[in-house]
Amino acid sequence: MYKEKRMDPDTILANLGVPGWGKLTIFLGAAAGVGKTYKMLETARDKLAEGFDVVIGYVETHGRQETDALLEGVPVVPRKAIEYRGRQFLEMDLDELLKRRPQIALVDELAHTNIPGARHNKRYQDVEELLSAGINVYTTLNIQHLETMNDIVAQITGVIVKETVPDRILETAFQIQLVDIPPEELIQRFKEGKIYVPDQANDALKKFFRPGNINALRELAMRYAAQRVDHQLESYMQMHGIVGPWPAGEKLMVCISASPFSAQLLRVAKRIANGLQAELLAVYVETPRRFPVTEAEKDSLAKNIRLAEDLGAQIVNLTGDDIAEEIIDLARKRNVSQIIMGKPEHTRMWEIINGSVVDRVIRYSKGLSVHVIPSEVKNIEQPIIEHKGHKGATGNEIHKPFLTVISPYLLSVIMMIILTIIFLNTKRYLGLVNVSLLYLLPVVISANRWGTKPALFSSVIAIIAFDFLFVPPVFSFTVGDIKYVFSFAIYVFVALLTAKLSARLKRQIVNSRLRENRVSALYGLSRDIAAVDTLAVVLQGIAKKVAEAIEADISLLLPDENGNISLQASSGNNDYLNPSELAVASWVLERGQKAGKATGTLEGADALYLPMITEQGIQGVMGVRFQQDVNTLDQERMRLLEAFVGLAAMAINRLKLAGEARRASNLAESERLRTALFNSISHDLRTPLASIIGAVTSLMQEDCIYTPTARDDLLQTIYQGSDRMNRFVNNLLDMARLEAGVLKLNKEWIDIQDIIGVAVSRMDAQLSQRSFSMTIDTDLPMIDVDFVLIEQVLINLLDNALKYSESSNAVSINARLSGTEVLVTIANEGPTIPVSDLGKIFDKFYRLSSPRLVSGTGLGLAICKEIIELHGGRIWAEDKSDWGVLITFVLPAFEKVPICGGLPDGKE
Amino acid sequence: MGKNDGARILVIDDESQIRKLLRVALTAYGYEVKEVACGQDGLRETAIYRPDLVILDLGLPDIDGLEVLRQLREWSEIPVIILSVKEQEQDKITALDTGADDYVSKPFSMGELLARVRTALRHSYHANEENPILILNDLEIDIIHRRVKVNDNEVKLTPTEYDILKNLAIHAGKVLTHRQLLTTIWGKAYENDTHYLRVYIGQLRKKIEIDPSRPKHILTESGVGYRLL
């Protein structure tokens, strides 16, 4: 929400058009019969003549000849027949229209309610779907069908219109064309019977079509259209940077409750907000005193909240003890400038006792304006709220067995009798005053445990018992006892107060606990799935937890690689997911809108389907199937459900991204290795090759006679070069084999001295040119190793030692026993390795600093490490004092060598 | 000792095998060879040892081979032959443009290297001498009289064609990069327009080669330039 509202985003959209969305043109009229359909058809025909692809989605001519004539030549998408309650109804065929994809679709009567069985509840939802598919739509609408105009029109005409269209549809419409005729002409038409208005009796119509009414409606319609022009002009000016007086960023707050009056309040608030171009905040404060208790109240509240949403208001739910305080607090926090409240019809008396919220708000409203709208509930006929299938709502309508009802009273009587006996016996010590006070006890207990009525009952019994049994003259009622009426009054007062407080406390506790449960469910779920890495586990966890918290069957449907939806996890019973349910889920996945029970779209489904959306897109669909028959969800559960859906979406997204990150890093790593490999091959094969080819070509030169020594040298070069290449190729192959895990160890019991000897003799040529020393402990135990591989390790290490040192540096090998391990150290004098690199030198293709510093593959040490570790040993590097490097490896040794049985010792 | 009168060659290469190879082979051909393993040593020895030719490996550990060349060229015109590896295409060209006389790619044939060493030394010896008529087998180029003969038949060349041939002839045996040729003949503005060069070389070949598709005189050094043999 921007503080400074420069541009109403809806207006921008209307002007720029959402990319891909079609444009909506509304033919608006003051009343039925002004000729909207006619005008629409006329305009459509013009477009058709210009070459646009125009198609009739649904046009109702009501048999009027002139209108019918206009239908000629315009292609029609035939209506779909839907069966409902044994009768056939014809509705617009939305799917066919979407398939047909015309440039312009004509859809009459925007406010129409579809027959159950159609995809959406309302035709305006159908139109929205058409628009989102990129199809332009022409439609017709009467001013009275506008949500915000609904009650004004009712006031004017005395007729309540049931079918309404939310204001946002008009606010985002591309064009509104006002269709208007002089009222006399309209009335004339009516008299001629040319106007058809369904669902209205003739008398009502006669009352409707009076000049006063018509004019008022015309004015409404014209004023609305003018307002639109105003907005458009202003946003045009803003968009083009034309300087003008910008309205200050206003925010309005309207306070709503479960009362049906809130609906009217919301509409008034919206009208004011529209006029001021302000944002609207709808606030509902829950106090323990005014919890919506009955189902009807909860429904009513939900309805009001839905209306607020429809009107584009932001909903805020507050809890607290003091309504006025909470309201003012929020208003200040959110920079609200105006508060709109309804004036309830409580009696003066009630207000004095309970305090008037309106008064308190006004008193603390420093700096804020407060609008108080009087309720006019009594003057308007309320449309009957029909709840389909509202059988057996849970809670307060169960008939309790008779015994449970009676028992508090019985218990009160018993308690009273017991106490009376006690008091009678202790009368002398207590005194009359104390006895009278003590009789409060049972009253308070009753009030606390059983509520108002038993408490009152107890007070009556108490006062009678007291008067009869304790007040002199005992065992009689006398006139002088009248003063004990005051005691009685006090008993009653205490009873009522305690009962009320008790009840309130109990309700508060119940609700708090309920809320706490739900919040902790949310927290528990988020904690659970935060650490989990596997998608399947996470999904299962979500399904289970949500099912517990919401008390419904949950199923999670995710799209597979082809984009088709499939069940991934469920909380248990999921056999309600037949293909038609899956179709609904697919629709939700595609559109990103909720559908199913209690949503207004595809309501025939068994379950409610909610899309799980993050910024990255629609992750999947959550299906919620309630265990009892529910048509409207209470706000609390709905909000919790939405929170869960959001959480689930994030979890799924997170896992998806984590998987991608892992893949990317794997890719990067193998990229790196590949590059290193290429570089290595290129350099380390090329160099020996160069010396070989150079030497060979030298020897092949005809014009030179080499001395024997020279020839020898060249031949040596060839040999060494080839040997190097051989070594390198072997290194590469070994590495490949180690990686693939196919290297098999050929282990035998071998004396390390043996291997060292072989390795040293292989390296003799180079070692003889250096100062080389070998120290091997005597009596080293045998080790169980692969001879060839350990020999290779030694050769690699010796080669390394020679490469990284000068010809003047000494090299040494040392082998000794340490505990149960044989330690072999190869040391060389020479430049030390930086401490930070001591571990890294065993990495594949790792070379100290510049790769050109020393020839070598960078694989040698890596291979050593693999081999040693395969044998269960360890290898590491150290710096030797300050001038040299030591590389040591250990191999596990054994004290006893298993002796193969039966080898004869010498000949016998 | 040997045919080449002990001309001194300094070998700068970090690979001991290559150094050994070059030492053995060049010594056998009568050159006196000194080896160093890094650029710094190379620069120092060039000043102290005063070789007649330097063989410089581009892939040196301490200083970049190109840098060595650049520093060298600041105070010496000593002929330099570059040793390079396949990947270092661009470096090779840059080196030649910076003042190296020729190049050899590893792995190289010893014969090739020896030929280039000879050419480079010859050019430096004869830097001040006038050698007006160049004879290469069947090709005869008279620079003073601007006459070209193939098998004793005079060939008519356009001025540009002649210019190209003349430049190649002056540096006979050595490679000339595209840029060097273009800059010399057309000027600095055209240094990247190799297509011009290719066209003219094609035409030249048609006129002086027996089989233009298998030229024996004007050889293409892929990606680098041309050489007249």
Can you describe this structure?
The complex is a heterodimer of chains A (908) and B (229). With 908 residues, chain A is of the alpha/beta class. Chain A is built from 28 helices and 24 strands. In chain A, a hairpin with a 5-residue loop joins strand 13 and strand 14. In chain A, helix 23 (635-700) runs antiparallel to helix 24 (708-740). With 229 residues, chain B is an alpha/beta fold. In chain B, 42% of the residues lie in helices and 22% in strands. In chain B, helix 2 (39-49) packs parallel to helix 3 (65-75). Classes of the chains: A alpha/beta (908), B alpha/beta (229). The A-B interface holds A 682-683, 686-695, 697-698, 700-701, 704-707, 710, 713-714, 717, 720-721, 724, 850, 852-853, 855 and B 14-15, 17-18, 20-22, 24-25, 27-29, 59-61, 85-87, 106-114.
What is the CA-atom radius of gyration of chain A, in angstroms?
45 Å
Helix content of chain A: 40-55%
Largest interface: A-B, 31 and 27 residues
β-strand percent of chain A reads 15-25%
Instruction: Tally the helices of chain A.
Output: 28
Give the overall pLDDT of chain A as a whole number.
Answer: 79
How can the largest sheet of chain B be summarized? 5 strands, parallel
> How would you sum up the global shape of chain B?
globular
Low-confidence stretches of chain B: none
What tags apply to this protein structure?
heterodimer; A: 908 residues; alpha/beta; five-stranded parallel β-sheet; 28 helices; flat; disordered N terminus; B: 229 residues; four-stranded antiparallel β-sheet; 8 helices; 12 strands
Summarize the structure in short.
The complex is a heterodimer of chains A (908) and B (229). Chain A is α/β, with parallel strands linked by helices.
Sequence-ordered SSE layout with sheet pairings:
The complex is a heterodimer of chains A (908) and B (229).
Chain A lengths: L8 H8 L7 E6 L6 H15 L3 E5 L6 H6 L9 E5 L2 E5 L2 H7 L3 E4 L15 H10 L3 E7 L7 H8 L9 H5 L3 E5 L3 H9 L10 H7 L2 H29 L11 E6 L4 H16 L2 E8 L8 H16 L3 E6 L3 H11 L4 E6 L4 H7 L2 H7 L5 E6 L27 H29 L1 H7 L1 H11 L1 H19 L13 H48 L3 H16 L1 E8 L5 E6 L8 H13 L3 E2 L11 E7 L2 E10 L8 H66 L7 H33 L6 E4 L1 H11 L1 H4 L3 E6 L6 E4 H17 L6 E9 L2 E8 L31 H11 L3 E6 L5 E8 L16
Helix pairs in contact in A: 13-15, 16-18, 16-19, 18-19, 18-20, 19-20, 20-21, 20-23, 21-23, 23-24, 24-28, 25-27, 27-28
Chain B lengths: L7 E5 L3 H13 L3 E5 L2 H11 L3 E5 L7 H11 L4 E5 L4 H10 L3 E4 L4 H16 L7 E4 L2 E4 L4 E4 L2 E3 L3 H12 L4 E3 H8 L8 H15 L9 E4 L3 E4 L1
Parallel strand pairs in B: 1-2, 1-3, 3-4, 4-5
Antiparallel strand pairs in B: 6-7, 7-8, 8-9, 10-12, 11-12
Helix pairs in contact in B: 2-3, 3-4, 6-8
